[in-house]
Amino acid sequence: MSRIVIDAMGGDSAEEVIKGALMSLKALPDIKISLVGDKEQIESVVERENASTSALDIFPAADVIGNEESPTTAIKTKKESSMVKSFYLLKDDADAIGMISTGNTGAVLTGGSLIIGRIPGVYRPTLLSQLPTVTGGTVCIADSGANVDCHPEWLCQFAVMGSAYMSAETGKERPTVALLSVGPEEHKGNALVRAAYPLIKAANLNFLGNMEARNALDGTYDVIVCDGYNGNILIKSSEGAAADVLAMFKKNVESSFSAKIGYLFMKKALRKLKHQLDFNNYGGGPFLGIKKCVIKAHGASTAVAILNSAKRILRIHEGNVISAIEREVAENK
Fold first, then answer.
1. Quick check: is 60 in a domain?
2. Which of 35, 223, 312, 317 to pair with 128, CA 20 to 30 A apart?
3. How far apart are CA 308 and CA 306, in angstroms?
């Protein structure tokens, strides 16, 4: 039976992570879960939720890696932290197919690279996040915050790995790939973008060229390639804009009686829209380029986000995504 390892600590709410693990056990009966963290806190939540523990193993960890700590130093020195212990469980258990952490992004990247190891030929793993599009699908952002300073060769490899991921998970033979820039013309962009463009163009990809951020969610693109600095801004500005638009809409509805009447007819559609825009319904993002599946979930993840992260691990495992990435990286050296 496949096993998923979950770092219960490091995020905003260990309780939500634990509840998400219990939800995953209930929704995904063919998996086992290893929860790593404060044993007393984990057992307290399990008891309160009156959950079945037949497929749950609890591994105590006396320490936590904080968001302000140096990733490399923390991974190398905090051997009793929940994150480091989670990585070793993932590495040493042949049945473990993936790991989820809501902790320090840099530490998750470092732990994945140093403890689990990179796929041969991978320069740097990329954190992939997904956003909903107006056509009802999703678009992947690679990188979305792990590698804020990049080399052109890294961006090219992010494109290759992102395309392989989308192809394996969605069944699309030739996912569309674009490079985030300040204009669609080939000569636009900073030095990094201009240097990366010909490399991505020469790779065996369905590359559509440069694209502007305003077109990110229009459904044209499957994979958007960028450095982690700009990718993180794109993700968070999109999430923030969506939340603000919904808040402004609510304020305007409350401003008049006729608007309130109209809202009654739109309530179902707006509830669906809110669901589409909630990051918790997509779960965390995988680090592509690591030998096993490592998911970095948002620090503020709810139990639903943890459940969806577990579902993503299963999809990656069943779709042989890591093997697909290995092949594509080898072919595009």
1. yes
2. 35
3. 5
d(CA 126, CA 223): 12
Angle ∠(137,176,277) on CA atoms, nearest 5: 25
Residue 329 lies in a domain: no
130 shares its domain with 196: yes
Residue 231: CATH number of its domain? 3.40.718.10
CA distances from 35 to 63, 66, 115, 284 (A): 14, 18, 18, 17
pTM recorded for the entire structure? 0.90
Shared domain for 96 and 150, answered yes or no, is no
Tell me, yes or no, whether 165 and 58 share the same domain: no
Q: What is the C-alpha end-to-end distance of the chain, expressed in Å?
A: 35
Per the domain annotation, does 332 fall within a domain? Answer: no
> What is the 3-class SS of 279-310, one letter each residue?
HHHCCCEEEECECCEEEECCCCCCHHHHHHHH
CA distances from 11 to 169, 193, 206, 234, 289 (A): 27, 33, 37, 22, 24
For residue 242, give its domain range: 126-282
Q: Which two tokens stand for residue 331?
A: 């072919």
Tally of structural domains, the chain: 2
pLDDT in tens for each of the 333 residues of the chain?
899 999 999 888 999 999 999 999 999 988 999 999 999 999 999 999 888 778 999 999 999 999 999 999 999 999 999 999 999 999 999 999 999 999 999 999 999 999 999 999 999 999 999 888 888 888 999 999 999 999 999 999 999 999 999 998 788 889 999 999 999 999 999 999 999 999 999 999 999 999 999 999 999 999 999 999 999 999 888 888 777 777 787 787 777 777 677 767 676 766 766 666 666 667 789 999 999 999 999 888 999 999 999 999 999 999 999 999 999 999 887
Give yes or no: residues 117 and 190 share one domain: no
CA distances from 58 to 46, 61, 297, 307, 327 (A): 11, 10, 20, 18, 36
Query: By C-alpha distance, which of 147, 143, 137 is closest to 161?
Result: 143
